């Protein structure tokens, strides 16, 4: 099977998978008033899921390195969860808290750094360490700025949630570092 057919097959799986995932809130809406999605919610969720999956397929399609593919998957998954949770409930306080907009800066760092580095493992290491630093900086600003006083965010919650994302960014960066080292070793042995 050539690369184009392989990509088409995976795109079909991705599209069907996205539709199945979107059926979950749609079905829940039929049985409870706790889930109230609008058409724009479904459209945005579909774009976010498809966009994340499609990016993974495009970036990893020529990579033979499982470490690189895992690192890309973790970085994209971390960005996906950060966006989803920030829009759904907010990271600090509610989703309407203005400091939550800053988290899109972390995503912008990831996107811009990835494009500048052309998704090369060495550049992705730097990009993801910068993203981790930015995430930690937002947490520090939130704590020193008194944002923990806006319910339901306590200092512990702000540190815990941001620490979770910082850890994921760092683990992904370390996975890229490993992938870059393996790639360098493979080139030296040739």
Automatic annotation (TrEMBL):
The chain crosses the membrane at residues 12-31, 37-59, 71-93, 99-117, 124-148, 154-176. The keyword Membrane applies. Keywords: Membrane, Transmembrane, Transmembrane helix. This is Uncharacterized protein. It comes from Gracilimonas sediminicola. The lineage of its organism: Bacteria, Pseudomonadati, Balneolota, Balneolia, Balneolales.
